[in-house]
Amino acid sequence: MPNYVISPPPVVTLPIEGSDALFPVRRVYCIGRNYAAHAIEMGHDPNREPPFFFQKNPNNLTTGDSFPYPPQTKDVHHEIEMIVALKSGGKNIPLDKALDHVWGYGLGLDMTRRDLQGQAKEMGRPWEIGKAFEDSAPVSALRPVSDVGHPASGLVQLKVNGTPKQTGDLNQMIWKVPEMISYLSDFFELAAGDVIMTGTPSGVASVVRGDVMVCHVEGVGDLTVKVV
């Protein structure tokens, strides 16, 4: 047994729908502004920008039914996203082989301290303070490709207290799942356990304590989270 000088942190895992097996998480990649309408609402032209990514930490992922309102902010936004879980990886993955590396899919929330992210943008600083805080990514159980295939179209919707806030379709993604995997692999060596959050439709908005967010991605699953 290794002689660690401190106790090693626990492995972050995600549940599998209908199974007691677990998916271990290695890294979390998030694509920015991957739906045209959301890019426009954030003040950008989606037709002129190559894809870009930021990261959350594996232990930012949570699987409970509550989201603790984070400190040092007065403007927390919801962002519903489909999640891609990889079973293998590599470098310079060809586009036509990219989906071979996918284990399954889920959905989640890229919760964002928008005011802190905005300050970071203005100062030309990284986004982690707005994106990678504790409990910032509530996620659903994963479903394997053998159950759901490779979803390329279908409703993406988030309601807050019963009112639709975000509504889109997976086919509106500017960069599709195979393109994301291939592009990322040109810059990083992808591996089993990597998770990709695939972007959010327009309609992002603030939440407050007591709000209930109900999320749905057609063919993938559902997630209900209360802000506490």
Account of the protein in words:
The radius of gyration is 17 Å and the shape is globular. The chain has five helices and 18 strands. The protein has one domain (13-227): Fumarylacetoacetate hydrolase, domain 2, CATH 3.90.850.10. The protein has 228 residues and is an alpha+beta fold. The strands form five sheets. A six-stranded mixed beta sheet has the order 4-3-15-8-9-12. A five-stranded mixed beta sheet has the order 6-18-17-13-14, with no helix packed on it. Strands 10-7-16 form a three-stranded antiparallel beta sheet.
Question: What keywords describe this structure?
Answer:
228 residues, alpha+beta, Fumarylacetoacetate hydrolase, domain 2, 6-stranded mixed beta sheet, 18 strands, 14% helix
Count of helical regions: 5
Largest sheet: 6 strands, mixed
CATH class: Alpha Beta
| Morphology call | globular
Cα radius of gyration in angstroms: 17 Å
- The number of distinct β-strands equals 18
Q: Encode the helix/strand succession as letters.
A: EEEHEEEEEEEHHEEHEEHEEEE
Q: Low-confidence stretches at least 5 residues in length (pLDDT < 50)?
A: none
Kindly report the CATH topology: Fumarylacetoacetate hydrolase, domain 2
CATH superfamily: Fumarylacetoacetase-like, C-terminal domain
Tally of distinct domains: 1
* Strand ordering within the main sheet: 4-3-15-8-9-12
Structural class: alpha+beta
Summarize this entry quickly.
The protein has 228 residues and is an alpha+beta fold. It has helices spanning 36-41, 114-122, 128-131, 145-148, 177-185, and strands spanning 13-15, 22-24, 28-31, 53-56, 61-62, 66-67, 76-77, 80-86, 102-109, 112-113, 137-138, 143-144, 155-160, 163-169, 195-197, 206-207, 212-217, 221-227. The strands form 5 sheets. Strands 4-3-15-8-9-12 form a 6-stranded mixed beta sheet. A 5-stranded mixed beta sheet has the order 6-18-17-13-14, with no helix packed on it. The chain has a 3-stranded antiparallel beta sheet with strand order 10-7-16.
